[in-house]
Amino acid sequence: MCKEWTPAQHSLFQTANFFFAAAFLVPGSFKQSVLLVRALLSFGYFFLAIWGGIEVCAPDILLWNLIIVILNCTHTALLTWRFLPPTLTLELTELYIKVFKPLRVSKKHFKELVREAKVQTLECGDIYAVEDVSPADERLSILLKGRLRVTCDDTHLHFINQHQFVDSPEWEANHEQSDDVFQVTITAEEDSTYICWPRMKLERVLRHRPMLKTVLDAVIGKDITQKLYALNEHLSGLTDERNRGKRDALWAKTNSRSMSMDAVNTGTSGLVRSQAYKLASFKNVPPFSPNLGSMGKLQSHKPQHWVPVVATQFPKKSPFIQQNSTNSLRIPEIHSTPPPQRSKSLKGSKKDREVKFKAPLK
């Protein structure tokens, strides 16, 4: 039992215990709580070490507190390095902001995805893939800067622009290793930079991050759709006609592609739209109705319009209906036939037989 209480200790001792109390009161409901606890403990033991060396002059108190300060400072530095946002180059940051951030991919997960890739360059005229020669199941690339031309049998198909996948159709067509090769030739139209993932490394990352796999599948599907639209528009002459200023007359004709597919929703905030659809402006066409569900959201961005498509492939009169339809619809008469009768030979077999008995002998 304490008969006399010693006076309060030095202010350094009180400050150290204040940091201890603050450290143990930190809630663990947020991610950086461990970092904050370690930092407060480091300050508390630091003031306690100063108090033991200056006020009490006890070497054991000074030594033990210094050791604990060093340990907590080491943990604090490691946690600070872990929780700091990853550093990305300017090109990768732009890719993240425009492609992955709208799909709610964190910067940490994007850093994990980019860590397994290599950034490579192509000079003007360099070839990324050769038709019928380059294997199509080894890599996946996204163009960061520049422009690539896609050709087949020396025929121009479409361009690959910034932040588009270079070989998304080949990646989607080859989920496993195969002997397939590129069916097109991809050439650099200007000095270009792209990021490339080897198949095995990318599949390993996606295996551990299913959310990234879902996002990447959606982005690849959107990219393939845009490539198919660009290819269809180029081969059908839409691009040339649009450049000649005949856009209004062109869109009044029957189009070979499905206009309803211009509104394929592939993400939380992205709609697949071809370049021709974005650039086209139509007059005297009613806009989207606000009661169209998800399609009504397009009204908040800018007015969009449906494209009138007239079906001209059907004849005016059906070839299956004859002129005299009344005569052709007559019901044929059905003649009833009497039921078949049994032959008479069967009746003779059922005659009663007479049994004769001989009279007994007397």
From TrEMBL:
Composition bias type Polar residues, residue spans: 320-329
Pfam families per the UniProt record, alphabetical: POPDC1-3 (PF04831)
Membrane topology: Multi-pass membrane protein
Highest taxon listed in the record's lineage: Eukaryota
Main location class: other
One Gene Ontology cellular component: lateral plasma membrane
Family indicated by similarity: Belongs to the popeye family.
PANTHER family: BLOOD VESSEL EPICARDIAL SUBSTANCE, POPEYE DOMAIN CONTAINING PROTEIN
Name recorded for this polypeptide: POPDC1-3 domain-containing protein
